[in-house]
Amino acid sequence: MVIVYANGQWVNENDAVIPVDERGHQFGDGVYEVTRIYEGKPFMMREHVERLVKSAEAIRMDLGMTVEEIESLMMEAVERSGEKNCDVYIQITRGIAKRGHLFPKDVKPSITMTVRPMEVIAMEERLAGKTAIFHEDERWKNCYIKSLNLLPNILAKQVANDAGAYEAILIRDGYVTEGTSSNIFIVQNGELVTRPLSNYILAGITRMRVEQLAEQLNIPFVEREFTKEDVLEAEEVFMTSTTNEVLPLVEIDGTTIGSGVAGPVTERVAKQFLQTV
């Protein structure tokens, strides 16, 4: 079942209340993470929580909890939910205070969390692939922070949806950065290529795992910038995220990628990922 945690209380999802002066509500002044649980086991939870802490540090917010305490709270939520395969969403904001742009003093962070059953993508559907479009990257310059400020991502994702596509691949200064909620990989001359980490992209946890899997599978892994043209001419393209895992993109802006279904490299990586979670 769905479980909700709100500032120290476990409540029904319809009973959770956020005060009007909560800074996440007022300003989007906070950070978040989504961690997946497979058969009761957290997948790379430590990496997710460490990234949460780094995001908080980047916006000069003291979480007031250790990594271990956050992990314990998340696992308590999972246990209370009774779910074995689920997604844990945790959001921490700068707290509740009278509206004002300056950081409030002597205010505790506000913590909310939900646990929901995961949405499983069947392997047949996964290997059939999804479609995408290109869209200008209109976000700010600190995309490495997993902040609540997602309006440009939402708008780009909606543009993709309106065009009948699943994802929007973002372009900045002529080069691919990432998707609206994913990292982007291409297969080029047999190499698995993704953009190097920088302030313009999120250091994806699934991206990290794919790099590890590439080494296990003896697939050459390369970090370099690539263009829209590189994507359209690639042998294969796929996206990665916590909730999508490894998902092929088989048509982009109306151009078929490869054979129009998941290519051999993508299929190997996707299957290996699911076998090792």
Query: Quaternary arrangement of the chains shown?
Result: single chain
What gross morphology would you assign? globular
Global mean pLDDT: 98
Helix content: 25-40%
The count of helical stretches stands at 8
Organism: Savagea serpentis
Pfam families: Aminotran_4 (PF01063)
Enzyme class: transferase
Cofactor: pyridoxal 5'-phosphate
Describe the structure.
Its EC number is 2.6.1.21. It catalyses: D-alanine + 2-oxoglutarate = D-glutamate + pyruvate. It comes from Savagea serpentis. The chain is α+β, with helices and mostly antiparallel strands and 277 residues long. It has eight helices and 15 strands. The strands form two sheets. Strands 7, 8, 9, 10, 11, 12, 13, 14 and 15 form a nine-stranded mixed sheet that branches. The protein has a six-stranded antiparallel sheet with strand order 2-1-6-5-3-4. The two termini are 22 Å apart. The mean pLDDT is 98.
